[in-house]
Amino acid sequence: MDNQMPREEGLDHSLSLLKEGYRFIVNRKEHLNSDVFETRLLGKRAICMVGSEAAELFYDEDKFQRSDAAPNRIVQTLFGKNSVQTLDGDEHRSRKELLMSVMTTEHINKLIDITEMQWEKSLDEWIKMDQIALYEEVKELLCKVAFKWIGAPLHEDDVKTMTKELATMFESPAAIGPAHWMGRTLRNAIEKNIQQLIQDTREGKISFPRESVLHKFSNYKDLNGELLDVEIAAVEVINMLRPIVAIAIYINFTMLALLQFPEQKQKLKMYGDYTKMFVQEVRRFYPFFPFVAAKVKRDFTWNGYQFKEGTLTLLDLYGTNHDPKIWDTPEEFSPERFAHWEGTPFSFIPQGGGDYYLGHRCAGEGITIKLMKIGLDYLVNKMEYEVPEQDLHFELDDIPSIPKSKIVLKNVQRVN
Ligand code: HEM
Ligand code: MYR
Fold first, then answer.
1. Residue 183, ligand 1, Cβ within 6 A
2. In this structure, is residue 157 part of a structural domain?
3. CB of 399 closer than 6 A to ligand 2?
4. What's the chain look like in SS3?
5. From the CA of 412, how far away is ligand 2's center (Å)?
6. Ligand 1 lined by 74 (C-beta under 6 Å)
7. How confident is the model at residue 8 (pLDDT cuts 50, 70, 90)?
8. Could you read off the pLDDT of 184-216 as tens digits, one per residue?
């Protein structure tokens, strides 16, 4: 028996989506009292879903496809054209294998060493300054880390430009007007730079260590045994650089959590394994990636509701991480909830759900956690600082949401 899917009336709600941000899907879920509903976005019917059951459905690749799904504004800023995020089936699996090939213990240990060294160097600079805006500083720190890790040169004079080009890609997808267009322009600029590096590597004008990310991506052969188009190889190299810089958002929220919940600091100092639980709770509690998008691959019925081929479908990540059906007191910050947590690959999904190799789950989830732990260790154990009066508010209607003051720290000192 088919049922009518709960539906929001009205011609189009795209502007409300940009205005309501992280609460768009949850507001309607509550109003319509349903984890799945229909609305209209970008002038067409669209489905929104939230919760672990919905996530499991969304990651079924017989039912949903990614090609032709993400809105152009996201492709032009965040993803890049023909990126792994837009592929399906064998083509996706082959490209994903390349990305996952640099997530081995060896590569990750190298990244950890580089990151720790860079925190040391940045801290040396911060102690000479009156105050720092943590978010801005950590973006630069991570930009240097990202270039070093992929094996590409980054001159000190270029750090600010590169940081801006990479950060604007994740700061601008949902922006309206000039800020959004700036995102597109800066993506074009960095794509050109990375394409040149890849071209030079291929022509033997410069050489990088065989095991470096840049070398691997430049020389990788696709399903047809051919080198990737230089444009595509550059997009995938940027798929490693940009999100490493994006970890600054989570490190900033980590700092905010320490300020909002000061009682947590003692626990972090006392119990070693509390660090991982704390980091997981930061990723669950605070907003970052709001939802993922796919298209219905072919008509099917689920729980009595009809899904029509071609319908844009959004899965709410933030809403699922705050779903009272999955989490007790979801609006409470409580790292302890992860002490004996037994979830599925679809219930805790700040970086997407399902499988890393077979599906679209974030290739960098493991390194995100590792780099957040390093940041947390510095903020709790290796640095002292004062926190001046400032506006630490973050709003759920801004995508991405960043505390207003970017978290100003004064008088940063090294703990010996
Ligand atoms: C995909 C979030 C960090 C590389 C994704 C997805 C989300 C996400 C939600 C999409 C999942 C889907 O489409 O179903 C985040 C967040 C991060 C982060 C919040 C925190 C900063 C990273 C890092 C890397 C990375 C550090 C690598 C260095 C990727 C790649 C994909 C991806 C390559 C595409 C995977 C695919 O389509 O198969 N990420 N990510 N991400 N992420 Fe991340
Ligand atoms: C990355 O750089 O890949 C990691 C984090 C990006 C977060 C971007 C937040 C804004 C995205 C709006 C996405 C809508 C997807 C349909």
1. no
2. yes
3. yes
4. CCECCCECCCCCCHHHHHHHHHHHHHHHHHHHCCCEEEEEECCEEEEEEECHHHHHHHCCCCCEECCCCCCHHHHHHHHCCCCHHHCCHHHHHHHHHHHHCCCCHHHHHHHHHHHHHHHHHHHHHHCCCCEEEHHHHHHHHHHHHHHHHHCCCCCHHHHHHHHHHHHHHHHCCCCCCHHHHHHHHHHHHHHHHHHHHHHHHHCCCCCCCCCCHHHHHHHCECCCCCECCHHHHHHHHHHHHHHHHHHHHHHHHHHHHHHHCCCHHHHHHHCCCHHHHHHHHHHHHCCCCCEEEEEECCCEEECCEEECCCCEEEEEHHHHHCCCCCCCCCCCCCHHHHCCCCCCCCCCCECECCCCCCCCCCCCHHHHHHHHHHHHHHHHHHEEEECCCCCCCCCCCCCCCCCCCCCEEEEEEECC
5. 31
6. no
7. very high
8. 999 999 999 999 999 999 999 988 888 899 999
The answer on pLDDT for 48 being more than 80 is yes
Distance (Å) from CA 171 to ligand 1 centroid? 15
Whether the predicted pLDDT of 365 surpasses 90 = yes
Range of the domain at 282: 14-414
Query: Measuring from atom 18 of ligand 1, which residue has the nearest CA?
Result: 243
Q: How many domains does the chain have?
A: 1
What does the pLDDT look like over 222-277, one tens digit per residue? 888 999 999 999 999 999 999 999 999 999 999 999 999 999 999 999 888 899 99
Q: 32: domain CATH number?
A: 1.10.630.10
